[in-house]
Specification:
This protein has 285 residues and is mostly beta strands. It has a single domain, classed as FomD-like (FomD barrel-like fold), CATH 2.40.380.10. The chain contains 3 helices and 17 strands. It has a 17-stranded mixed beta sheet that branches. A hairpin with a 2-residue loop joins strand 6 and strand 7. The longest helix has 19 residues. It is globular and about 50 Å long. It holds the Pfam family DUF402. InterPro entries: DUF402, FomD-like_sf. It comes from Metallococcus carri.
């Protein structure tokens, strides 16, 4: 059944989504006129969430490249997801997060998730970092070099492709410290997301996710109104530059890619000084 633009829903994880348009038919504007995303590309080091980062450099698509099969720790502020490199080239990183991959995630002191906290308190609460694992089928993540987003390919338990999740995030910075056992990149989640779903009519639905959460970051002091508008502008640019022309990485048929059993083996969190520091942290979300 084809849904009307403006329809709303709740995701399995409890987030709010709204259907804002379809590819080829336009979309409801996301950002106000004149909103600028410049600050996303010049965000200060502190926003990445920890002091023990060592040397970091922007991910620009230039060599040396990570090698296929290499473990890579994805740091989102103080949160961490473990992944395995599929490939890296001048366009960016392609990573696989296998089911059971080690994670470090924020919870309430009692162990609850973010959505167990009322929306108006979600960005004002203290969070305790706890170890977890990636639950459900593995996910392919593509991180275009220098872009304030990554694109995630989702499959269901039966192995059927479900859609593309666009995670708005700061452009990644790569650790350049020599001798590290696990390569790592650092970013910061920007709250707002997009969900792209194949439509019964043969096109792609564009859903805006967690707009209500982004609104709450301003009174909570996480972002200024201009910064929040910059995040909205990044989502708008993704629709204009990637969705509408179906540009890379959407143009590459990653939905046909499947890992080998060896590649799909779970990855534990590395036992490093940085991970130990993050485990002990009390964090903002």
């Amino acid at each position: 059944m084809t849904r009307e633009v403006g329809a709303t829903d709740i995701t399995p994880s409890g987030g709010t989504i709204a259907l804002i348009g379809r590819r080829g038919e336009g979309w409801i504007p996301i950002a106000p006129a004149g909103a600028r995303e410049d600050w996303l590309h010049t965000a200060p080091r502190e926003i990445f969430g920890t002091t023990a980062l060592g040397d970091l450099a922007p991910v620009t698509g230039a060599p040396p490249y990570a090698q296929p099969g290499e473990p890579m720790a994805l740091h989102f502020g103080r949160s961490v997801d473990m992944s395995r490199v599929v490939r890296e080239d001048e366009r960016g990183l392609v990573l696989w997060v296998p089911s059971g991959a080690g994670r470090l995630v924020p919870t309430t002191p009692a162990g609850g998730g973010a959505r167990s906290v009322p929306l108006d308190q979600r960005f004002r609460s203290a969070w305790v970092m706890r170890e977890s694992v990636w639950r459900g089928p593995g996910v392919l993540r593509v991180i275009p070099a220098g872009a304030p987003w990554s694109v995630w390919w989702f499959w269901n338990d039966a192995g059927e492709f479900e859609g593309w999740y666009v995670n708005l995030e700061l452009p990644h910075r790569r650790s350049t410290e020599p001798g590290e056992a696990t390569t790592r990149t650092h970013t910061r989640d920007l709250v707002l997301d997009l969900w792209l779903a194949p439509d019964d009519s043969g096109t792609v639905e564009v859903w805006l996710k967690d707009a209500d959460e982004l609104e709450q970051t301003v009174p909570a002091g996480r972002y200024t109104e201009a910064e929040a508008d910059g995040i909205r502008a990044a989502a708008e640019r993704f629709c204009r530059e990637i969705v509408e022309p179906w540009a890379w990485p959407l143009s590459e048929a990653f939905e046909q890619w499947r890992p080998t059993p060896e590649f799909d083996a779970p990855l534990p969190l590395p036992d490093t000084e940085l991970i130990r520091e993050l485990r002990a942290a009390i964090s903002d979300q």
